[in-house]
Amino acid sequence: MLEIRELNKVYRGSGRLVEAIGSVTFDVAAGELVCVVGPSGCGKTTLLRCVAGLLPAGGGEVRVAGEPVTGPPPRMAVVFQEYGRSLFPWMTVRQNVELPLKEKRLPRARRAELVAGSLAAVGLSDAADAHPWQLSGGMQQRVAIARAVAYEPEVLLMDEPFAAVDAQTRADLEDLILRLWRDLEVTALFVTHDIDEAVYLGQRVIVLSSSPTGVMADIKIDLPRDRDQLATRSLPLFGELRGQVYRWIQQARGAR
Ligand SMILES: Nc1ncnc2c1ncn2[C@@H]1O[C@H](COP(=O)(O)OP(=O)(O)OP(=O)(O)O)[C@@H](O)[C@H]1O
Questions:
Q1: How many distinct structural domains can be found in the chain?
Q2: Same domain? 145 vs 157
Q3: Which of 35, 75, 174, 178 has the fewest CB atoms within 10 Å, measured from its CB?
Q4: Res. 256: pLDDT tops 70
């Protein structure tokens, strides 16, 4: 579903060149959930923005369902870290979730159905008429997730979506993502700096190196498909995998 081939990205500004991505190549199969980790500043956000068609690639190619990405691909949704900035404060929760559906020109009845379904899926049916600023951070991020889900994406990209919420909310949101991913059979690329989160969510974890940014390791997460915050995290294999990812990240940092 996602093909990233020798992707390169250089930022140019004020006479300075920053090579954010050297050369990154990997695939994500349809229906897979792949997590990307790597040292701070190694280009994870840049990679996601290139895949989302929000930034032009400098070199190489990104394909979604076989089509080269030249702008935001249809049937792709993105959830960013900064939920505070991704929701419109003057719109209600319902209006925020409905906005992309209006842009998709869906009929009113279908929009209402999708909005109600996605708000129910994230447990926010009662908050439909509230404004984002009346909600907690975790609830606002659930609105952002509902908006992505209502859009019925084939591909869901997430950039450190839980970095700004407390630990308990984070665990709840991780389980929400796993449930939605299974129910919707969506292909997901999830960027995080949290090793445990990457192992808990992913079917594969890709470790990026920095300077130059490339794929340092591509680790298969052979944990049972049904995950549980307590049971999965207590498995000896979970500990082994997080150790493995940790060592690769240390190596990636050393490669600077
Ligand atoms: N708009 C920009 N102009 C110039 N350089 C940029 C720009 N955006 C990012 N960079 C640089 O590109 C590199 C990669 O940044 P990016 O935000 O993609 O990394 P990251 O892995 O997501 O970082 P973090 O883990 O800290 O969120 C960094 O050196 C950063 O300073």
A1: 2
A2: no
A3: 75
A4: no
* φ, ψ for residue 145, nearest 5 deg: -70, -40
**Residue 234 CA, ligand 1 centroid: distance in Å:** 34
Q: Is 208 helix (H, G, I), strand (E, B) or coil?
A: strand
Q: Is residue 82 part of a domain?
A: no
Q: Counting atoms of ligand 1 from 1, which one is nearest the CA of 160?
A: 27
* Residues 112 and 18 reside in one and the same domain: no
Output the CA torsion sign for 120, 95, 65, 45: negative
17 Cα–ligand 1 center, Å: 12
Mean pLDDT for all residues in the chain? 92
226 with 195, same domain?
Answer: yes
Do 139 and 162 lie in one domain? The reply is no
Q: Are residues 189 and 144 in the same domain?
A: no
CA of 189 to the centre of ligand 1 (A): 18
Q: Is residue 102 part of a domain?
A: yes
Residue 8: which residues within 8 A CB-CB, separation 6 or more?
19, 21, 22, 23, 24, 57, 58, 59, 60
**In which domain, by residue range, is 8 found?**
2-75+153-254
Supply the pTM of this predicted model: 0.92
ipTM: 0.95
Q: How far apart are CA 170 and CA 192, in angstroms?
A: 12
- Tens digits of per-residue pLDDT, 101-150? 998 899 999 999 999 999 998 899 999 999 999 999 889 989 999 999 99
Averaged pLDDT, 247-251: 92
Q: Which residues pair with 61 in a beta bridge?
A: 5
Q: Mind listing the pLDDT tens digit for each residue in 147-192?
A: 999 999 999 999 998 887 888 888 988 998 999 899 889 999 999 9
